[in-house]
Structures are given as structure tokens and as C-alpha cells.
């Protein structure tokens, strides 16, 4: 017997709630929208009109109840003004990362307002989310991005090509990338791996589906990798250039303090997200070089 869409979505919502999915109704509607090839608003209208549930819907709901990320099931993740393709092998872009991307957009716009073409580098680009959003919002910027994981790199290339955004995406290690841009960059932005070693994420979507190389910051503070990425940013930035780096909400004191201690940065400021949680640090490359810094 054909089931009505409204009943199917309500049953899916209850099922996802039982499975501990944080936003069960929104996910139930999003999956229906995906199968129907339409928007959430159209799904809600079709529910009221008593339309039939589409074939294949319950299979997707089963997978979501097993905590496969919604974005892996739809193959898509919205990020600021763009939509990215995502799936196994790449970190799913998060809404909270829109903050650090927005700070990079602002910094690039300040350079562009002065008449120059801003040079922007995204270290640890994953799906390409930040780099592609910056290019989308500041079309005059020269945007470069690097990613270590070949799987994630392939997703970044696919996203660049699908969005037709002219971004230089490279496969490599962010801690030694872009020898051709030393001292020439206006803005470095990064969402590096920063979860403290040994601290396993609670959400199965993260623990079981985001690649480990995207998550763990390399030591019990979670700051080992972010700090070597920041050291590379210091080599890439011109004096007065700006670093924007995302961090865990527990690192809003430690990351700024560790950056200040290098002597390479001034105007180190921490930023909170929409929920008031410390989420990103900005810093300006100072002209003074620290004693241990290579010339
Ligand atoms: C937290 S994810 C962020 C991805 C993307 N920037 C975003 O915000 O959605 C960190 C990314 O850094 C990559 N990564 C880890 N170590 C790296 C390194 N040494 N050099 C370049 N990329 C690295 C991981 O593979 C992963 O894609």
C-alpha cells in the first residue's frame, strides 16, 4: 500500500529521534527532499497535500538512523553561499567554520578595497570549503589551497570544478607548502585538525565518518598541528598579513597565548561563534622576527 508522505516523514522523525539524531525532523524532511529532488519547503507543502512517499525514502532513513551523516546520504553540504559535494574520505564542512571563512572574506575585502588583488591561502582545505567560499565572495582574490589527504584532495578538485571557481588546489603538507608564496600572502586561513589526542568525539557521525587525519591535533592539547600550521602561515604572510584559524571551544585561551609567545604575531584576538563559544583566532603578522625564526 502506498504510504502518505506526511505519515512517512513523521515516522522517520520518531525513528531518528530514537536513534539520537540531534535534529530528527529537519533530517527526515531533508532526506525526503533529496529523494524527491526538491526543497524542504516543497516537501512540507506535499505533506499537507497528502502526496505519496517516494520509493527509497525508508532505506535512507535506516542509514541515517545508523548515524551515517546526513551530508553523506544527500552528497551535499551547504557552506556560506555555496554547495559542496561531500562523502567518504573528506571532512564534512561545519556551520561553525563559516565564522572563520567569514573573517577571511572580510580580511580579503580590506585588501581589495585598497586596490590590490588579495592573495589568500587556505591551509588544510579538505573539501575546499573555505577556499571556495572566499573565491565565491571575493572574486578578485587569488586563492590557493592545500590538502594532505589524496581522498580529500580529490573532493576539493571536484568541488572547484563543479563550482567553476578559479582556485589553485594542491596536494601536499600544509606545514611546508607554497614555497613560491613565501612573504607574499595577505591572508592565511585554516581549519586544521585540533581535537586533543585521546579525546574521542561523542557523535558517531564524526567518530565513524570524518577521517582521523582531519580530526586530531597531534598531542594532548590538540595544538601541535595548529601551531606548525601557524608557523608556516608566519612564513607565508607579508608583514601586516592576517592569520585566521579555527580552534576547539576549549582552546580560546591557549591558542592565542601560544601564538603571542612566538613573537611573530600582533593584535591576537579570539572570536566567538553565534552560540557565544570561542571558535577562531585572528592575528596579524608582525614585522619583528623572533630569535629562532628562519630569515
Ligand atoms: C578539520 S578538517 C577541515 C577541512 C576544511 N578546511 C573545512 O573546514 O571543512 C582538517 C583538514 O586538514 C587536512 N590535513 C591534516 N593535516 C594536514 C597537513 N599537514 N597538511 C595539509 N592538510 C592536512 C585533513 O586531511 C582535513 O582535510
Automatic annotation (TrEMBL):
GO MF: nucleic acid binding; peptide chain release factor N(5)-glutamine methyltransferase activity
Residues noted as binding S-adenosyl-L-methionine in the record, renumbered to the chain: 147, 191
Top EC class for this record: transferase
Protein's GO biological process: methylation
Keywords, ordered alphabetically: Methyltransferase, S-adenosyl-L-methionine, Transferase
Domain Methyltransferase small: 118-194
SUPFAM superfamilies: S-adenosyl-L-methionine-dependent methyltransferases (SSF53335)
One Pfam family cited in the UniProt record for this chain: PrmC_N
Residue numbers binding substrate: 191-194
EC numbers: 2.1.1.297
Catalytic activity reported: L-glutaminyl-[peptide chain release factor] + S-adenosyl-L-methionine = N(5)-methyl-L-glutaminyl-[peptide chain release factor] + S-adenosyl-L-homocysteine + H(+)
The Release factor glutamine methyltransferase N-terminal domain, residue ranges: 8-75
Kinase listed as a keyword: no
NCBIfam families on file: hemK_fam, RF_mod_PrmC
Role this protein plays: Methylates the class 1 translation termination release factors RF1/PrfA and RF2/PrfB on the glutamine residue of the universally conserved GGQ motif.
Homology family: Belongs to the protein N5-glutamine methyltransferase family. PrmC subfamily.
HAMAP family: RF_methyltr_PrmC
Record-given protein name: Release factor glutamine methyltransferase
Source organism per UniProt: Nostocoides japonicum T1-X7
Gene: prmC
Amino acid at each position: 500500500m502506498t504510504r502518505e508522505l506526511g505519515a512517512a516523514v513523521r515516522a522517520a522523525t520518531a525513528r531518528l529521534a530514537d536513534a539520537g539524531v540531534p535534529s530528527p525532523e529537519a533530517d527526515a524532511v531533508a532526506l525526503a527532499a533529496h529523494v524527491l529532488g526538491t526543497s524542504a519547503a516543497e516537501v512540507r507543502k506535499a505533506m499537507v497535500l497528502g502526496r505519496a512517499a517516494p520509493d527509497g525514502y525508508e532505506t535512507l532513513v535506516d542509514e541515517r538512523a545508523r548515524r551515517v551523516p546526513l551530508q553523506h546520504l544527500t552528497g551535499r553540504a551547504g557552506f556560506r553561499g555555496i554547495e559542496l559535494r561531500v562523502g567518504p574520505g573528506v571532512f564534512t564542512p561545519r556551520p561553525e567554520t563559516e565564522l572563520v571563512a567569514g573573517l577571511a572574506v572580510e580580511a580579503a575585502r580590506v585588501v581589495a578595497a585598497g586596490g590590490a588583488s588579495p592573495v589568500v591561502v587556505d591551509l588544510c582545505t579538505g573539501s575546499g570549503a573555505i577556499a571556495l567560499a572566499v573565491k565565491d565572495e571575493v572574486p578578485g582574490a587569488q586563492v590557493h589551497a592545500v590538502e594532505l589527504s589524496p581522498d580529500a584532495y580529490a573532493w576539493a578538485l571536484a568541488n572547484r570544478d563543479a563550482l567553476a571557481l578559479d582556485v589553485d588546489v594542491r596536494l601536499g603538507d600544509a606545514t611546508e607548502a607554497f614555497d613560491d608564496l613565501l612573504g607574499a600572502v595577505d591572508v592565511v586561513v585554516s581549519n586544521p585538525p585540533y581535537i586533543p589526542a585521546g579525546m574521542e568525539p561523542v557523535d558517531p557521525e564524526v567518530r565513524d565518518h570524518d577521517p582521523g587525519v582531519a580530526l586530531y591535533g597531534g598531542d594532548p592539547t590538540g595544538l601541535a598541528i595548529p601551531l606548525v600550521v601557524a608557523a608556516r602561515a608566519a612564513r607565508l604572510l607579508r608583514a601586516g598579513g592576517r592569520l585566521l584559524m579555527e580552534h576547539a571551544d576549549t582552546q580560546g585561551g591557549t591558542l592565542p597565548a601560544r601564538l603571542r609567545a612566538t613573537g611573530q604575531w600582533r593584535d591576537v584576538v579570539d572570536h566567538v561563534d553565534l552560540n557565544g563559544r570561542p571558535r577562531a583566532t585572528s592575528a596579524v603578522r608582525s614585522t619583528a622576527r623572533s630569535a629562532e625564526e628562519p630569515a
